[in-house]
Amino acid sequence: MNKTRLPVYVVHTHSSTFAWNVIHFGQLVVSNKFRKFDFGTRGNLKHYVTRY
């Protein structure tokens, strides 16, 4: 399995709320910091009005 596509696969599971939580937890583990959900550069601009 392509690990970079994991968020896409997880989002398409039965419970999208659970999927977003799993993705966010993964982001927290990778960054080793507690922070908001990372939607990517464009998504962050849309949701948070910032790139980060």
Provide tags for this entry.
3 helices, AB_hydrolase_fold
Report mean pLDDT, rounded to a whole number: 83
- DSSP helical segment count: 3
How many structural domains?
1
Helix content range: 55-70%
Our Rg estimate from Cα atoms comes to: 12 Å
SSE run: HHH
Structural class: mainly alpha
**Could you tell me the number of beta strands?**
0
Spans of at least 5 consecutive residues with low confidence: none
How would a textbook summarize the main sheet?
A: none
Beta strand %: under 5%
Give an account of the 3D structure.
- InterPro entries: AB_hydrolase_fold.
- The protein has three helices and no strands.
- It has one domain (3-48).
- The protein is mainly alpha-helical and 52 residues long.
- The chain has helices at 6-11, 16-31, 40-48.
Fold topology:
Layout (H helix, E strand, L loop, with lengths): L5 H6 L4 H16 L8 H9 L4
InterPro entries: AB_hydrolase_fold
Short description:
With 52 residues, this protein is mostly helical. 60% of the residues lie in helices and 0% in strands.
